[in-house]
Amino acid sequence: MRAVNTLLIIIAVLLIGCIMYINTRHEALSLTNDDELVIVAAHYKEDLDWLKKSKWPVVVCGKENQLPHTLESNTKYVCDPVPNVGKEHSSYIKFIVQNYDNLPQYIAFIHGHERSHHQTYDILEELEKGEYKNTGFYTMSRERVYEQWHEGPRMNFQWPQFLEDWDELFRPILKRDPPKKLVSDCCTQIVVSRERIKRHSKEDYQFWLDYMVSHEPVDGKDYGWYFEMMWHVIVGEPDITEDKHMVIVSAHWNEDLEWLKRAECPVVICDKEGAKQHSVESSKLYTCPNIPNKAREASAYLNFIVNNYDNLPDHVVFIHGHEDTKNQPNNNDHQIDEHLFKILFEDRAYKHTDFYTLNKKYANDWNTGFIYFNELVKLWDKLFRPILKRDPPEKLEYMCCAQFVVSRDRIHVYKKDDYKTWLDFTLTHEDDYGASIIMEMMWHVIFGEPDIVKDSRT
Asked: In angstroms, rounded to a whole number, what is the distance separating the alpha carbons of residues 197 and 205?
């Protein structure tokens, strides 16, 4: 009898050991999920067939009473339907909660639609670029939210309520005061690393999910809006994120640049050798080494393009260093639009085109009666024909004087070596002022506009 009891004890110990091993092994496997990227698509009524092209696993995180779809959700992950509240955010958080111990290296949280006002591009092609691998948080949206998420004339109506709810919803987890202002990209299509998600516990995410599901909407808007504002903060980004879709590039010699500190996107100062000292910090995302003080802004613009050709944002804003020209009597005729920041951060009219002028003066005298136009024609075969592959213009008309927004796509029409050719020209031409005027006349042509563009501001 004693031998039987001993045998039973041994068997029990072995069984317990096996169970513990299996649990430990399962936990280890869970914590070392080797999937690089998984797409998590929030779904209610969208057509998901476009995601059948994905080379990455796709998990559909639907809402209760969602419309049926034929996309097969990857079975390695779980994401049960949630009530149709909280927009996409309740679906995102449901995935995190149910897969917290089995997260891949990166999760692409996306909407179910293939296209939208904030996503006019192919999101699978965006992921194919692999840029998300360089950071723990990568936004795939193209709409920048500048004015709504802070106190001001264009404040989102939910901002005061957001501040009122801070102590209950965010302070216990984030352990900080509420932000004075939030600036990031709309509309929450993001890639987040496993490490960034695990800055907070599963219980924290469960708390946020329960809050969204259980609280009644305020003025018709549920609590998903709070997370639209807060995802970048939750996963470790600053309250005001650096805009990776646009950069202001300012040519600088002796201008006062203090006004550029008001810009709500990265600023790069392209100094000339011997330039006046300034306190504006250039974005570390880009480089623009000092060059000789030749060819005014033309050499600075080309210097930026050459040094950042493979790292350009969606749009580049090329401007002079002066805020306006009230104190520069020789330049009154080409004052930059006094509402520059309104154009860039509120109206954003430039987003609807690949080339947008920021100047006021219309130049209709770029023809054979102008000495530098004749110089342009003389240099055409050497400087422009091999690149543009066309005859010289008979005349040119556009807005003076070389301050504009241009898209990355337009810049990439030509190779980096082409811009090097033009940069070398501006730095070595015997008449460097003339070189700057030649480029000034040609910018709109280089970037795909017709030779003659009538004044649209009159």
From this structure: 10
> What sign has the CA pseudo-torsion 133, 136, 140, 143?
negative
Which residue do the tokens 């006094």 mark? 338
The C-alpha angle 214, 219, 221, rounded to 5 degrees, equals: 55
Strand order across the beta sheet in which 355-357 lies: 267-271, 246-252, 315-319, 404-407, 355-357
Enter the DSSP assignment of 55. Answer: S
Distance CA 138, CA 129 (A): 12
Q: Which run of H or of E encompasses 192?
A: strand 190-193
Total-model pTM: 0.70
* 309-343 tens-digit pLDDT: 998 998 999 999 988 753 232 344 444 545 788 88
Phi-psi region of 363 (alpha: psi -120 to 50; beta: other; left: phi over 0): beta
What pLDDT band is residue 16 in, cutting at 50, 70 and 90?
A: low
43: exposed, middle or buried (C-beta count within 10 Å: 0-12, 13-18, 19+)? buried
Whether the bond into 288 is cis, omega within 30 of 0: no
Q: What is the mean pLDDT of residues 226-255?
A: 91
Arithmetic mean of pLDDT, 245-251: 93
428's tokens: 């070595």
Type of residue at 432: D
Determine the Cα–Cα distance for residues 404 and 133; give it in Å rounded to an integer. Answer: 32
Amino acid at 368: T
Report the distance separating Cα 198 and Cα 148, nearest Å. Answer: 29
Residue with tokens 């111990």: 101
Helical segments of 99-255, H only: 123-128, 159-169, 171-174, 194-197, 202-214, 224-234
Strand order in the sheet with 106-111: 58-62, 37-43, 106-111, 190-193, 137-139
Q: Return the beta strands (E) in 325-438 as ranges.
A: 355-357, 361-366, 396-400, 404-407
Q: Which two tokens stand for residue 65?
A: 């009473």
**Side-chain half-sphere CA neighbours of 97 within 13 A:** 19
Q: Which of 79, 73, 193 is nearest to 133 (CA)?
A: 193
* Strand extents, DSSP E, 20-105: 37-43, 58-62
